[in-house]
Amino acid sequence: MRPYEIQDAESVFKVVKLREIAETTISMPHPYPRETVDWWINFVRENMEKGSAYEFGIFLKDRPSEYVGNCGFVSVSNQHNHGELGYFISPDYWNKGYSTEACSKLLDFGFSKLGLERVFGRCMAKNIASKRVMEKCGLKVEGVAKHEVLKWDNYEDVFHLGLIRSEWDYI
Ligand SMILES: CC(C)(COP(=O)(O)OP(=O)(O)OC[C@H]1O[C@@H](n2cnc3c(N)ncnc32)[C@H](O)[C@@H]1OP(=O)(O)O)[C@@H](O)C(=O)NCCC(=O)NCCS
Predict the structure, then answer these.
(1) Which of 20, 27, 38, 143 is deepest in the core (most CB within 10 A)?
(2) Is residue 67 in a domain?
């Protein structure tokens, strides 16, 4: 996992433009305009400098030019010391444990380096894989917000999951 560079734009576009990625993400546009990727990479880099979000590209260990997906804190509140998880993986690499590996590294980073008190995430109730990823990383379901999201003309129920520092210490 590493911070994004503007040269990553083409690889990122190949993934974010896919319908399979947009379908279960809460706010990803579809179709995804190519120029938005450049804007997004700059946005992510600026956020990291400000400390308001930390998103990383995931690449294969033995083929570092191969972009697998994204994992990060899409927002960090310095006031409340919490961070919200966000991630996606290219469908070519689904169900190989990449998202779980990346999220678990991110939790280490969030609790140890950023000193967060709480990490949380949200996923559509139908997104079984995402809920499973968060649960495998130790997050617990805190509730379900019915019809929280209007996605492609359907209201979707959304699971809220969270983990606080003292619970993470015991994982
Ligand atoms: C959600 C997502 C990131 C998961 O990435 P991944 O790298 O495939 O996740 P992992 O391989 O680490 O773990 C997936 C787990 O879900 C399970 N799973 C996947 N689909 C499932 C299904 N239909 N029913 C039951 N379990 C399922 C897998 O078996 C695995 O669990 P296991 O290790 O206990 O067997 C990926 O599917 C994705 O990018 N989806 C589109 C974007 C998205 O939804 N992002 C999250 C928004 S909240």
Answers:
(1) 38
(2) yes
